[in-house]
Amino acid sequence: MKQIPVNEFAFPEPGSEHFKLTCKNHPTAEYSTKNPFLRNLHLLKFPDGMHSECDCPFDDLVVLVEE
Q: What span, in angstroms and rounded, lies between the C-alpha atoms of 18 and 13?
């Protein structure tokens, strides 16, 4: 999968499509959103070995896109 930095990804207006994201520092974390700038970001899976979200800045998120 290709990883695009969250601030470089062109999110469309929220519709039915969900996008998967992860943290570039904690790649086992999983998030889902329709658009993180207009809607909520949902945590689907904690990073391995952790029991909460990582403390990394929002800018460390990447959108996972099939190539």
A: 11
